[in-house]
Amino acid sequence: MSKQQLNKNIEKIYPLSPLQEGMLYHQLLDQKSGDYVVQTTLKINGDFSVDLAKESIQLLAAKHDVLRTIIPLNRFKKPVQIVLREKEIEFNKFNFQEYSLEEQENKIDEFLKKDVERGFDFEKSPNFRVAIIKLSHNEWIMVWSFHTREMFVQNPFGEGTMYRSGDLVR
């Protein structure tokens, strides 16, 4: 993303908290460690619309700033987190139907390992991506991969609240 495109797409800018600075420091020291990458896998049986899932993920990102946040390195004296107005979430589809059950298990394990090792490019992409793996005509696996630099908590009043290492942001 060029500087001009980035400037037009900025919604908010926040400083990193000390905890986030520490996590970024450790991540940059060993980008392949995967220490801060978390994966959640969901097995889905029955009718499933990949297009509807993708649309839902994009709506989720539109609603929650944290899913549109990048950290451009070397552009500021200290790293900051920039919330973009719009950012498409990475959404990948894979078809493992041609493989036997044993091969599918091996392929899934390999995918999960490589996905963690891949980490996240804080400058170019938010800290979140989704993969859909089709195993059969009515069996799927959805993989949510995210970086733990930020997390959500639920406000008791039902409104989503973002938690940033000690700071509540509404």
Low-confidence stretches: 150-170
Secondary-structure-based class equals alpha+beta
Count of strand segments: 10
Q: Could you give the order of strands across the largest sheet?
A: 2-7-6-5
CA gyration radius, whole angstroms:
17 Å
Number of helices: 4
Q: How much of the sequence is in beta strands?
A: 25-35%
Proportion of residues in helical segments:
25-40%
Globally, the shape reads globular
- Distance separating the two termini: 27 Å
Q: Major sheet: size, sense and barrel closure? A: 4 strands, mixed
Average pLDDT confidence is 80
N-to-C order of helices and strands: HEHEHEEEHEEEEE
Structural features, described:
The protein is globular, with a radius of gyration of 17 Å. With 170 residues, it is of the alpha+beta class. Helices cover 29% and strands 34% of the residues.
Layout of strands and helices, then pairs:
Layout: H1 3-8, E1 10-15, H2 18-29, E2 37-45, H3 50-63, E3 69-70, E4 80-84, E5 90-95, H4 101-118, E6 128-136, E7 139-147, E8 151-154, E9 160-164, E10 167-169
Brief rundown of the structure:
This protein is an alpha+beta fold.
Q: Could you list some keywords that capture this structure?
A:
single chain, 170 residues, alpha+beta, 4 helices, 29% helix, disordered C terminus
